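Researcher: Here's the sequence for the chain we discussed earlier.
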Amino acid sequence: MDQPTRGADRNRSLADQADPATDGMLLPSLGDGITLLDIEGGRGVPILQSLVLDHLLLHDGPAFWVDANGHATTTTLAQIAPSQRLLNRIHVARGFTAYQHYGAVCSLPSAVNKVIQSSTAGSGAAGRGEPSRDEDTSPHTPALIVVPAVDAQYRADDTLGETHAKTLQARTLARLATYAEGYDIPVLVTRNERNEFTEPVATVADHHLECEQTRMGPRVVGEDFETLVYPVDDGAYYQTTFAYWRQLLAARATQVGVEPTTPAPSTPTPEGVGTGVTADGETVAATADPLLDAWTATGTGGR
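Model: Thanks. This is the structure I predict for it:
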């Protein structure tokens, strides 16, 4: 009997079929500095984990994850990861209170040094892996820092006043900015809510990604990236965004000698309704009352 296909096996199959020319269309690359990922419609745990795993596939070195609210769940990580060896490169610390979270962020350099010493000790077997895919990275130094829900513990801790909560969050963001510059790596953060409390997160971020859930899958938009296609089996792709179709049809129109034009925006009437077309093909202004339009139209025989 045919056994059901596991998610990890299906992802591995899709990765084997991936076309390098279209890789950039699927997930955005994370640049050095702090990247803020805003996810609409939920926590977006699989989306966050996919970005982390994709970065580790392209770069050597471990990832250091300071978790809050259970974003580092191993269930989805194991299902998404095409290789279990990737999971060995992710080091997780969890903070269940504001001070624990801040303490984990402050202790990150010590954790990095400990991992470097462990990976380079003895014969170096722990640090050996697949051949490097990036000449600028090392299998020993950090490749990525992940801090999801960076505002969660500071917002929810009842032992902190509003001023102290903002101060502690600001110190956490300052530490993360220092790590991004010192290690010359990306720092990926998310936030639970968009409001005045989390405005400093957007201010400190060097890059901003926004993700919305669509029927075909998550759509990510950034400064230099926009999801235009969604992969399916057999190396095919589905397209759902209007931007792609406009580009495609404009290129086709040029190819066949038709000058692409952009439809002029309609000018609303004072009533704000628009225009209508009569049975004779005449374009007339439309009001909010179609009976009144017919009653006052010229040449209709009625008044």
